[in-house]
Amino acid sequence: MNKNTLIILASTLIVILGLTSYFLYSKEKPVSQKTTDSQAAKLEQQSNSDDTTSIEKDLNDTDLSSVDKESINIEAEIND
Amino acid sequence: MKKVFLSILVSSTFLFTPTFVHAEDAVKSPRPFVQKEKVSDLRKQIVTNFFNNMVERLQAAEDRLNKILERIESRVAKIKDQNPSKDLTKINNDIAFVKTKLAETQTKINTLKTDFEKMITSDSPKESFKNVKEEVQNTKRSLQEIRRELSQIIGEIKGLHVGESKNE
After folding, report:
1. Would B43 be classed as within a structural domain?
2. A13, A26, A70, A75: which to substitute to probe chain B, counting the most B Cβ within 10 Å?
3. Is B126 a domain residue?
């Protein structure tokens, strides 16, 4: 086996390694799943007391203004 | 030395051959199409994550209002025990109304999930999303209405002028 054969084999190996790396790298990566939303977690917290002051406070602290905020993001992604 | 080097080369080639053959399948498809599919799948995943967050929040809001209603019912039961002569008809009717609204809202959230599944696999997601968006807004309005109703019930309870300390 001469020197040229070895160079060809080495080149072939480099090409194989390069292609393998390319396809492995370009493979789609999964998007991380966000399991708990901070506002949802906040909504889950409330007193167990049944006195009217406590109930009224939890009711006033119930913020529903942005429960649907992702609607805009979804629309933007779909219409993009 | 040459034999060792040759052995390493041949071994490495066989080691990477399965991946290479698998990758060949991808190469057979026209490259632009493959890229487009990837973006589409990624976008689908992003939209699904946004939707799941939103539903989690809507569900948390519904659960919270449900729990507040249970606390109000507990308060009303104590008032009834301590003050049997008090007329609680309106409060009880309002509680029944809120219970119905909560059940309806839960149905809306469940429908929302089903309709989103249809939307995400639809050929015309833009059109399908209009329906989903409207349902989200309806659900939000229902939650806001329930919240107002509960505040009204609390006002009615306070209007009874019944001391709480002796009812604990």
Report:
1. no
2. A70
3. yes
